[in-house]
Amino acid sequence: MKKTRWIALFLTLSALSLWVSARPVGSQFQPAADLIIRNAKIWTVDKTRPTAEAVAVLGERIAAVGSNDEIEAWHGAHTRVIEAEGKLLLPGFNDSHVHFVDGGLALDSVQLNDATSAEEFARRIAERAARTPRGEWLTGGDWDETKWNPANMPTKDLIDPTTPTTPVFVSRYDGHMALANSVTLRLAGITAKTPDPPGGVVVRDAQGNPTGALKDAAMDYVYNIAPSLSHERRLRAVQRSLAHAASLGVTSVQHMNPDYADIAVYRELLQRGELTARIYAAPLIPSVDDQVKLGIGHAFGGPFLRIGALKAYADGSLGSATAYFFDPYSNQPGSHGLLSDEMHPISLMQDRMMKADAAGLQICTHAIGDQGISIILDLYREIVKAHGEADRRFRIEHAQHMAAKDFDRFAQLHVIASVQPYHAIDDGRWAEQRIGHDRASRTYPFRTFLNHGVRLAFGTDWNVAPLNPMLTLYAAVTRATLDGKNPNGWFPEQKLTLAEAIEAYTMGSAYAEFQETEKGSITPGKLADMVLISDDLFAIDLAKIRDAKVLTTIVGGKTVWDTAKTDSR
Ligand SMILES: [Zn+2]
């Protein structure tokens, strides 16, 4: 957005709040609020009025923000009142990068992420297989072998004896690798003779036989033959996800890589009035022609459901050693990682991006390794050259390992860094062994991004990481790795303040989906999406932020989650 437009927006919002606060108390023209929240410690994320005590809601929008006395003027006979008892009220969290259906399915499936050994991993799969109906697949899992000792990649030999008839295909937590058992390998026709596809690897033993582990594009061998999700299972998964989001104060999500059938489920729930989080859906870029045909452009839709973005993949992940770097991995001197199958050849990606941009669609590209990011910046620059300057809000998802030379370019192209702070305290446990100290110093470089004028949008990549915003805030302000080895922060110079972290999670994410005038702050005229928190995050020890809970979640003026009995008339 151009600076002049920011000023215009600022003036509009200030005028609106002046008009609202200037209305006489008790005026007969004053409509009564549907909801008042009072005695709150409000952090608005609105620079024109950073703090307040009370807020009035009319229908689905915020009508007024101010002191308890000012807001009392909105109190009518039928106004619902939430007594906040001095608790912190924030704008609802907007998670800029989730896999919402995968998350819902994971809530239902075998849990492998916290297994602390290969034996425990195998035991849980055996236990689940024993009660899985014949013919049904055993999927999900989110295993993480870095939590085992020794941290060896699992093989099918661990699970074959207990899964003689059940097809198993359990994913690594980063989604870039999965383990198949022999039943699944047979169904997919994967043998020693199966070649590695472009952008993928069939992991093999010393004799060249598949171990069951498949990386990136090689997973498609299985996905191509796996039964697709039924509408019923998909709907159930979304309902699980919505309830989970509400309980955590997540009022908006940006769903990366949805199937079109997921969007159909959202529409169905929207029509039933059961969509309790606002969705922006970004299907994969190989389907660009579908959206170009519709001629819809970015952020098309209504307050609860929008489309018009596309998700692309430049490379893999650090954990799977498939993120694409200029220099080889420190612990694998022969490997720079892998470009994704969408990048073979790069001109294929360029053509798709050009098409998307010409149609006004927003591009969100997963890029993790420094060279992967650099190539995407090259492609973005080519688009600007070809189509001219515009408010297109390019995004790079993850933007994990930056080359020093690319920060300026990132800012000049107005690219949004859509980042997941939890990954930093998770990967921070072992990242340096894989990429060395120098590259690690530019890993999740939040402070350097801000210093260069790059906008941040916060998210989690759920279900790759937990959806809980308190963990993300905690990660951004402490950078204390999960293993407890960096209590003062891993590369502490990259820590953010709490205010900066909250802004990235609310206004930053709203901007990343072209919705900064509709949500992201507690401002008159905006959608009434707010969360009441158990603790004053600004007053407690930073290390305690992760234990804070969301007491009440309000979406469009409606309470969608409530633990405390705060309601009264
Ligand atoms: Zn993701």
Index terms:
569 residues, alpha/beta, six-stranded mixed beta sheet, 17 helices, globular, disordered N terminus, binds zinc ion
The helix tally amounts to: 17
User: What do the pLDDT scores average to?
Assistant: 93
Helix content range of the residues, please? 25-40%
User: Rg, please?
Assistant: 24 Å
The end-to-end distance, rounded to whole angstroms, is 43 Å
Total E-strand runs: 27
Strand order of the largest sheet: 3-2-7-24-25-26
Structural class: alpha/beta
Describe this structure in words.
- By secondary structure, this protein is α/β, with parallel strands linked by helices.
- Helix content is 32%, strand content 21%.
- It is built from 17 helices and 27 strands.
- The longest helix has 19 residues, at 3-21.
- It is globular, with a radius of gyration of 24 Å.
- Bound molecules: zinc ion.
- Zinc ion binds at residues 97, 99, 256, 461, 464.
Give the secondary structure arrangement, pairings included.
Elements: H1 3-21, E1 35-38, E2 41-43, E3 51-52, E4 54-58, E5 61-66, H2 68-72, E6 80-83, E7 88-91, E8 93-98, H3 100-108, E9 110-111, H4 118-130, E10 138-143, E11 168-172, E12 177-180, H5 182-188, E13 200-204, E14 210-216, H6 220-223, H7 231-248, E15 250-256, H8 260-271, E16 278-282, H9 288-294, E17 300-302, E18 305-307, E19 309-313, H10 346-358, E20 362-367, H11 370-387, E21 395-398, H12 406-412, E22 416-419, H13 421-427, H14 431-440, H15 446-451, E23 456-458, H16 469-478, H17 498-512, E24 530-533, E25 550-555, E26 558-562, E27 567-568
Parallel strand pairs: 1-6, 2-7, 8-15, 9-10, 10-11, 15-16, 16-18, 19-20, 20-21, 21-22, 22-23
Antiparallel strand pairs: 1-4, 2-3, 4-5, 6-27, 7-24, 11-12, 12-14, 13-14, 17-18, 24-25, 25-26
This protein binds zinc ion.
Residues 97, 99, 256, 461, 464 line the site of zinc ion.
